[in-house]
Design a protein that fits this description.
The complex is a heterodimer of chains A (180) and B (215). Chain A has 180 residues and is an alpha/beta fold. Helices cover 36% and strands 21% of the residues of chain A. Chain A has one domain: Flavodoxin domain (Rossmann fold). In chain A, strands 1, 2, 3, 4, 7 and 8 form a six-stranded mixed beta sheet that branches. The longest helix of chain B has 22 residues. In chain B, strand 4, helix 4 and strand 5 form a beta-alpha-beta unit. The mean pLDDT of chain B is 94. The chains are: A alpha/beta (180), B alpha/beta (215).
Chain lengths: 180, 215
């Protein structure tokens, strides 16, 4: 399991909540790799498409983004974790997600009457999202973010399992993760 | 009226976003007295200048391509930096322009919903979210369909300058269909894959490595 932490603040409840989740995952026997993006260098995608058309499968940026993709390809599940900022995961996390492009091929195919790109690798891990709400987060925000992750999963040929708040129901989070 | 364009594409000056927003701007500026100013958010200096003027009177047009089903990280960074302006945008009108290479409108729909909610969060006067499907390579293509989309955007900008409203029929055509006919996909995709992407791969000497798995 790869945990991709998009937290960009030193807010302590978030850290404590995440540590609790990581502990429970380890106790449940999951092999957990955590990547704290704030401590890494992941250059934003510039849309050059070299990873499709010049050096297939390889990004021009030789930074920690390569490590993230390698770990992702060899995981069964990616747990995206982030505070919501302006109703969405942080720019830090989104920058990392944007580096996903080399995992698909440039070519076009359809699924259910909609375009997408075929996979470069045999499979992509399942996705789940844990978030720390903002003071004004409401159900609509969670629906919007969940829809975006569902679309991401659909276009990545995988499944999005759930979006859950990190702090309000630690037992529920633990239960959901232990039963993946 | 002043139109400020916030180009949030990581490609900045060479972006499709620039060509697409440029077409809208052309129509908007046909009305005497209207003028436009562009900020390339990929350049830190422009980002700072743009943020400083975001709350001034006029129309703010925020444009970005869809990267992995949402806004690019750079656009999200820009949005995060708008947070201090919450509730201070009563003099400005807001427009968003979101584009994707895929033809179906389903690829831009979640962002439309997010941007509608963002405008509420900011307390801004939102005039609409323009969605463009099938926009890949629009800057370098001379195909009839892509030129038509740019003409439609110019027309949309022209009408908006006069009425302050976005024409719903043009918006629908720009957004694209919900599904593409299977027959079109079966005929067109092998051609696009072999002669479009394939030509680029061969030109770069990468055709034989197109399925490489370096990870």
């Amino acid at each position: 399991m790869l945990v991709l932490d998009g937290n960009n603040t030193s807010c302590s409840p978030y850290r404590e909540d995440l540590e609790g989740v990581l502990d429970s995952l380890a106790k449940a026997g999951h092999e957990v790799n955590i990547l704290r993006l704030a401590e890494k260098t992941v250059h934003g995608c510039t849309g050059c498409f070299s990873c499709w058309l010049k050096t297939p499968g390889e990004c021009v940026f030789k930074d920690d983004g390569v490590d993230f993709l390698r770990r992702m390809v060899h995981s069964d599940l990616v747990l995206f974790v982030s505070p919501l900022v302006m109703g969405f995961p942080t720019a830090l996390l989104k920058n990392a997600i944007d580096r996903f492009i080399p995992l698909v091929l440039p070519f076009l195919e359809t699924a259910d009457g909609e375009c997408r790109h075929p996979l470069r690798y045999d499979r992509i891990p399942l996705f789940a999202f844990l978030y720390e709400p903002e003071h004004d987060t409401d159900e609509e925000d969670v629906e919007i973010v969940s829809t975006v992750f569902e679309r991401f999963a659909r276009n990545a040929h995988t499944k999005f399992l759930f979006a859950m708040p990190l702090s309000s129901d630690p037992v529920g989070v633990k239960h959901a993760l232990e039963n993946i | 009226m002043r139109l400020r364009i916030f180009n949030c594409s990581p490609k900045g000056r060479s972006s499709n976003s620039r060509v697409i927003s440029g077409a809208f701007t052309r129509g908007f500026c046909e009305l005497p007295g209207n003028e436009a100013e562009e900020f390339l958010v990929a350049r830190e200096k422009d980002m700072e200048k743009g943020l400083a003027s975001f709350g001034e009177a006029g129309v703010n047009l925020v444009v970005f391509p869809v990267y992995v089903d949402a806004m690019p990280g750079l656009a999200k960074q820009f949005i995060e930096r708008l947070a201090p302006l919450k509730g201070r945008l009563s003099d400005t009108r807001l427009l968003f322009l979101v584009h994707t290479g895929f033809p179906e409108e389903t690829h831009t729909r979640p962002m439309e919903r997010y941007l509608n909610k963002l405008a509420v969060r900011l307390g801004a006067n939102l005039d609409g979210v323009i969605r463009l499907g099938g926009g890949k390579g629009i800057k370098s293509s001379d195909s009839h369909q892509k030129n038509k989309a740019l003409d439609e955007l110019t027309c949309l900008g022209r009408i908006y300058a006069v009425d302050g409203k976005l024409d719903a029929r043009i918006m629908g055509r720009l957004a694209g269909p919900s599904r593409i006919p299977m027959l079109i996909a079966r005929v067109m995709f092998p051609i696009v894959n072999y002669f479009g992407f394939g030509r680029e791969l061969r030109k770069n000497g990468a055709w034989e490595r197109r399925f490489d798995r370096p990870l």
